[in-house]
Amino acid sequence: IRKIAVLTSGGDAPGMNSAVRAVVVSAINSGIEIVGVMRGYEGLIDWETQPLGLADVRNINNQGGTILFTSRSERFLQKEYREQAAKNLRDHDIDALVAIGGDGTLRGAIAFQDEGINTICIPGTIDRDVACSEYTLGFDTAANTAMEAIDRIRDSSVSHGRCSVVEVMGRKRGYIALWAGMATSADAIIIPEKWDGDFDSIIDTIKAKHADGRNSYLVVVAEGVTDAPELAQMILDKTGIESRVSVLGYIQRGGQPTAKDRMYGSLMGAYAVDVLKKGGTNRMVAIKNDILIDYDIKEAIDIQNNQLDSFQYELSKLLAE
Ligand code: F6P
């Protein structure tokens, strides 16, 4: 291995910069030249790149977002553009690619394998929805950001005696909702993995607490499961309690990464370069039992794992007194 490229793709996630930094520093320490590809797979198609040296990644551990920028590339779904991207890599004598991102990034790498490109993937997405890995970069920061935002919302909710319905991100996974909701002792947490449409039990819970003298309530909803404004209206209609909706949105994607995201980013980035040095091809870096491992990317995508911990979910209900 003489020369490699690194990119970040899909939704940006805190900790991606630590991974980029670790890839760059580890590569340079091993005498491997490294090129940064801008805007994910889009930059690979358009050959928007920059050589990366130690100075380029100095003091970036604490930066949110990704210094390489990112995209959700529609073009990369088409073979002709993947061929163009592969040609670009070959024309520039690049032996392998490190791609940091979520499920879409992994799928892109699998398709890219057919063009003869060796890609090592690192799981980075706030959703924690890459099934083969117990952890994905950005989750910890996003969950903490959501938790802090909900703490603030609760202050206002308590002062006014309202019910706050807070929508958090997570696409098809309820991890951010579960962690942020449990950390703020939410009265109800609605997540895709467990939601059975039982609005009545949420209303009954709020009514019972109201009868017991409680004056404020918190419902945390993962995006896409149910319509938060409709839920707030239903709570008002059926309980008479004033309800307000907050959609946390992209606030959850940004900000300074937590120590965990910086640490795991560093570990995963260095590990990816190690995999390449050992001759690994088309591998997915993952965490299992808190240890770094790697899978073949095609095997990785087939791993089905309803990661969400039922015990944690049940406990969140028990603790919502
Ligand atoms: O994958 C991370 C995520 O923030 C999801 O939680 C959310 O559904 C999605 O990205 C939003 O995508 P976009 O950045 O394309 O609007």
Ligands bound to this protein structure: 6-O-phosphono-beta-D-fructofuranose
Order of helices and strands: EHEHEHEHEHEHEHEHEHEEHH
User: Uncertain spans, ≥5 residues at pLDDT below 50?
Assistant: none
- Gyration radius (Cα, Å) is 22 Å
Which structural class should the secondary elements be placed in?
alpha/beta
In whole angstroms, how far apart are the ends?
A: 57 Å
**Count the strands?**
11
Separate helix tally: 11
Structure description:
With 321 residues, the protein is of the alpha/beta class. The chain is built from eleven helices and eleven strands. It has helices at residues 16-29, 40-46, 79-91, 103-113, 139-160, 175-183, 199-211, 228-239, 259-277, 297-302, 310-319; strands spanning 3-8, 33-37, 49-51, 96-101, 119-123, 163-168, 188-190, 217-222, 243-247, 283-288, 291-296. Strand 10 (283-288) and strand 11 form a beta hairpin. Helix 2 (40-46) crosses helix 3. The longest helix has 22 residues, at 139-160. Residues 11, 72, 102, 125-127, 169-171, 223, 253 line the site of 6-O-phosphono-beta-D-fructofuranose (F6P).
